[in-house]
Amino acid sequence: MLSLVKSCIGTKFTSQFGDLIADLAIDATTTVGVDLGHGMREVDIKKYIKVEKVPGSQLEESRVLKGVMFNKDVVAPGKMRRKIVKPRIILLDCPLEYKKGENQTNAELVKEEDWELLLKMEEEYIENICTQILKFKPDLVITEKGLSDLATHYLSKAGVSAIRRLRKTDNNRIAKACGAVIVNRPDELQESDVGTAAGLFEVKKIGDEFFSFIVDCQDPKACTVLLRGASKDLLNEVERNLQDAMAVARNILKNPKLVPGGGATELTVSATLKQKSSSVEGIEKWPYEAAAIAFEAIPRTLAQNCGVNVIRKMTELQGLFAK
Question: Minimal CA–CA distance to 238: which of 28, 70, 31, 52?
């Protein structure tokens, strides 16, 4: 498989780095491959493989993470843990803040105590949401929406780290990697929704930015390819080469059937059709001959591009087939 992937990127920029890009592509695609049964295999490289480009190091430091990496830090860095071993992860698709009314909503307050009552209602609403989440003893809570200061206070008090406003695509990858289920409402949470397959959650500073890592997952079905390099332009070119390599690796994993290249397959089909045409008489042989000549176009074009004598080379190849 390595030689197949290498042949597709052999003429590209990254070929000078040896097997590095081919190894990354094979590792990433085999990680996200899912067996559907009946000999079928699903490999979704677009959804479940994220390529994260971080300039400022050697290309040789690039690697495939058995998990997910994203450009976020915890909400309250001073109060929340930045490293958790075997975390219990809850993924949410709802805001952990008080829902404000519509634009046209008016609240008329007659007494001073009414204002305090209104604030108390907001606090109780957020406390209730946090209590429902904390019931499952999570170590890390990630939401795609907002997270209020009060919710941050309740979570950090319970020793829970939190990340807010994460992309939907990243949340889906985390769910696939750690075995969690994305929940739309905190009151619908179940024990089975908590992700426990991750080995480590850690926040690291790379360059000027903080990145969160959820790695060392057991049998992850999503991964991140971390590309390091000297500049953004270099990384963009490496990413394009990597995408080509992953597409080839995916095709091999999904349907492991191969035919020889370099015009060999087309010439074999052409010669076989010519043999068939010789056994047929009259007007019926014409379609076979026409198709045989059409198939010869590919090896002929390749010979022309190589700068060899086309007629001599074609005759030589046909002679080899006859043998």
Answer: 52
- Is the pTM value of this prediction over 0.90? no
CA 140 remoteness from chain centre: 22
Task: Decide: 180 and 91 in contact? Cβ < 8 Å.
Answer: yes
- Report the C-alpha gap between 264 and 207 in whole angstroms: 50
Beta-strand pair 63-65/223-229: antiparallel
C-beta separation of 12 from 244 below 8 A: yes
pLDDT of residue 294: 93
Helix, strand and coil content of the chain, in percent to the nearest 5, comes to: 50, 20, 35
The yes-or-no verdict on residue 39 having pLDDT over 80 is no
Q: Which of 97, 95, 90, 96 has the alpha carbon at shortest distance from 182?
A: 90
pLDDT at 102 over 70: no
What is each CA distance from 41 to 28, 32, 142, 220, in whole angstroms? 15, 10, 30, 16
